[in-house]
Amino acid sequence: MSIKTIFLLLLFTLTLTANERVISLSPSITEIVYALQKGDDLVATSAFSLYPKEAQNLPVIGGNSAPNLEKIIALSPTLVIGQDFSHATLEKLKRFKIETLMLKLQTINDIKSSIIELAERLHVSSKEVIKSIEYAIKNATKSKKPHRVMIVYGLHEDLRSGIYIAGKNIFFDDIITLCGNTNAYDANQTNQPVLSYENVIALNPDRIIILHSDASNSSVDKEKALSAWHSLPTNASKNRLITVVDESYIHIPSHRVALTIERLCREMNR
Question: Boundaries of each Fe/B12 periplasmic-binding domain copy (predicted)?
């Protein structure tokens, strides 16, 4: 082997292993980068990237919907990673010859595929990360008596202002099915529909699970809010099957969807 060939191979190896300068445009992507053991390559993240704790020490380039382009460009990133809602931002960055990657993190299959795609781009293995999700899927607790489940985003005292729920083609819908149940919302128009309380009554779910965060909404009166839900004439209210789940990872479509599968299956089937 010639000296020139050895030099080129060495240069190629160093290029692959050298730290990149990666910017994440969403908390989900931040979590996945750390899960792939590439957190040291991150030079900035989006707002609300709280996990793992190390991410909180990184510069913030703005929120999901309107990141600061000047800050991003000033950091000289080698790769900027966003989700589909960051499409416009990623297109603008391409004009500055910055490499971008757009991931889809809507369904469980999307999450798995995106983890594999990102791992390949970062030249690392996704095997262990994917294995944890597959394990959660395989061991999802099935309901002995299938029922119609409604997953609600946020706990509010006034139900007249619109109720956001998990619709179709989203990982919460996948989890409802994995747990042996069906989504009470059976239309396909949107993955995050907004309902009135009359709509909820018409759907008449057997179980209602409300995703709430004390960290972001500590002012809500839980007793008053649950009282409002129990006042609606539904099977869930009649059978006292309205519960609140407060977990920091529950809304995040990252590798931690494995935890969400286990937690929500346990809640649905207890």
Answer: 21-270
